[in-house]
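Hey,

The postdoc asked me to send both predictions to you directly instead of through the lab channel. I've kept everything plain text so nothing gets mangled by the mail client. Protein one:
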Amino acid sequence: MDISVIVPLFNEEESLRPLSDWIKKVMDENKFSYEIIMVDDGSKDNSWKEIEKLSDENNNIRGIKFRRNYGKSAALNVGFEHCEGDVVITMDADLQDSPDEIPELYKMIKEQGFDLVSGWKKKRYDSTLGKNIPSKLFNATTRMLSGIHLHDFNCGLKAYKKSVVKSIEVYGEMHRYIPVIAKWAGFTNITEKVVIHRKRQYGTSKFGMNRFINGYLDLMSIMFVSKFSKKPMHFFGAIGTFMFLIGIIAAFILGVEKLVALHNGETMRLVTSSPYFYIALIMMIIGTQLFLTGFLAELIGRNSTTRNNYLIEKEENFNNQK
């Protein structure tokens, strides 16, 4: 199969038929073999009934329904698990993403060899001052921390090699950072394509301003997990050791000052009456706790079933070569 189109949706009953008809038109014109996987993320309207009708009319359409609303990440992840196409396209169900972009995205994956192509909605129709500025700051921060030079990490229109979506797991609110997750999984050939952004025709946006706050928290989480999940001692142990040493040195200096004062016959207050003594003590305690945290995390990691969760790109039996 050439292409799998994954459409996560929540309360989008009006747009499903025009979207599916549009995708079918593009696929037929380009003679692609395809499937459309519509993932109903616990919709409260008639979205699922509409999916059932569309599936009866078109065998290429498959539907997956969640019992309740789990979020876009869960919808994408289950779509990744069930897709079969060589190239996987994700797009939103609100008709703001254009299926006419699919042929070019397909070529960029199959012919140009990219692992992931992310859409860039350079000209938006839903930009407001309160939304545009936080979005630019969010994307700039993500570029700086991840080293991936994309302008729009959160664009729903993306194309992937099948091996990419079968090698990553998207959970929580991590759909914003799929390029970052893919990079940490070893898929570094990532680029972007300017895509058409259309005005929403039906319904209302499902995302509020809180997504920007959650977005930064999720970014910190994924950067930490990606870098230190396999070696937590390198993070907690290093910081803990540094803080402990600072505390020890500070306590040593206070002791030396006391001994020098006694040697010279000078009157000096008790070491324990100095605020620096308690700062040094706290530094040593926190340093010890951080070190033990890293040690315990290392023990847990060594007993994890995913401690050797690596990906093999190619394998060859050299013993059979002559």
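Protein two:
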Amino acid sequence: MRILLVGAGGVGDAIAKIAARRSFFETIIVTDYDPARAESTIAWIRDKHGDAVASKFVADQIDASKPDVVAEVARKHAATHVMNAVEPKFVQSIFAGAKAAGANYLDMAMSLSHPHPTNPYSETGVKLGDEQFAAADEWEKDGQLALVGIGVEPGMSNVFARYAVDYLFSEVDELGTRDGANLAVFDDDGNEIFAPSFSIWTTIEECLNPPVIWEKDKGWFTTEPFSEPEVFDFPEGIGPVECVNVEHEEVLMMPRWLPAKRVTFKYGLGNEFIGVLKTLHALHLDSITPIRVRSANGPVEIAPRDVVAAALPDPATIGPRMTGKTCAGVWVTGKGKDGNPREVYLYHVSDNAWTMAEYDSQCVVWQTALNPVIALELLATGAWSGAGVLGPEAFDAKPFLDLMAAPESEGGYGQAWGLREQ
């Protein structure tokens, strides 16, 4: 397996660092628009693991916005798999580039949505992933696999959902992804500051778009942003967090493969974060449409959202200033295998102190990066296989969760996951 890793930001950097402890691949080509970032990732691996491990990593430059460039770099390195680790706005160009190069493809977020032109808060328009799923027949016909949405959410959450359907329940009422944390970021003086732990570009996209809900009798429909608040009690000391509806891929993916009466996604944002997002929207700073701005060198065209992203701390750099844990999981209700009512929460918790000590990566990006590496290993060993455009829930969950939880001394990843009866 020769993996073209597109993007050496926070998540891409963590993917390479996690993979450095594994032996299932021949080479990982770490690429970025700024090749210095790719080289920095490999230098960290060399310092941590030595020259023998670092020799399996190669740095190169790439422009992820151009499918022909992605295809060219993939062919140059004889890549068998293209791992997309950049902003969702580049999904379609990398997806097309991998297809053209004859490589398999993985991503952690899917092609962007476009709200319904007249009824955005009741009807769907172009949904997350629609453009990729539309190409499924072509990928299957050519024997290529696009494993989409294999981050943490979507990704690990989808694996948990598949496990619940296959092994825990005879009938599922709701698959409800619930994400919460008690993370805090501080400045040099010890004051807590506003610094999102994940890409603000992506966060704006998913939080301000109309959230999607799926119900068996209605199909997909939308609601108002931040709707249906509920308090969910997260495990391992995180505690109660208010969660709200947010647009997310799980709702667009799970119903394609898993039987359930309802599928939802709710995210614990907090009042301050919601307030900031609403302000950005009111000021049109969430827009991705370039506007003309005067500068010292003359007028330039720039998207307001890109300005916001540039003004905030890079999520890859805030780990040393961050404390707390983040939790990703799926709350499942229905009837157990014995026919009696059952309600469980399947989850994984990532502790920033541990991820920083072990990988020099903050916990949110590290938890996201863990899952594509596990998936790549399953594909390399043949435990998972397929063709077409498939989500993680299209595969048996047990090999994934077994490999994830097994101790590193026994060939696993040493990441225990939880199952809490509600």
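Summary for protein two, as requested: The two ends are 41 Å apart (CA to CA).

Thanks,
C.
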